[in-house]
Specification:
56% of the residues lie in helices and 15% in strands. By secondary structure, the protein is an alpha+beta fold.
Length: 155
Amino acid sequence: MRKGNQRWLLLSILVVVVDALSKAWIKKQLLVGMSYALLPLLNVTLAYNRGAAFSFLNTSDGWQQWLFGLIALVVVIILLAWMVSLPRSKNWQAAAAALIIGGAIGNLISRVYYGYVVDFIDFHLGSWHWPAFNVADSAIFVGVVMLIFSILKKR
């Protein structure tokens, strides 16, 4: 069986490009904390996150930027190695890895370029708001869900 799923790196690149463009566009359109209602349950709200998911360690004094950047880099390297070693028939797993790689790189670029991750997708129900997120976070989430389904499918 022939190995190598490098072709899925195009999906990673697409995620990185769409993520970077969306973050730059939102930063030009809104000030931090500004919100624009798109749908009854969806706002575009500009937020900066120096921490991790759900703003974990967001208020720390900066060391967390390096930690989360290093974690992203390690995850990207591990997933790249795994993805290219997969048989070409493992498209689902390769696509999942590509989404996670693209999302991790997108947020890493944001951390390096801005010093924080730009979040702007704001789902809410009444006054309850899910923590804001971005295109990179969405790609990571979808990739992880795809990997979980592929693992559960084998059982």
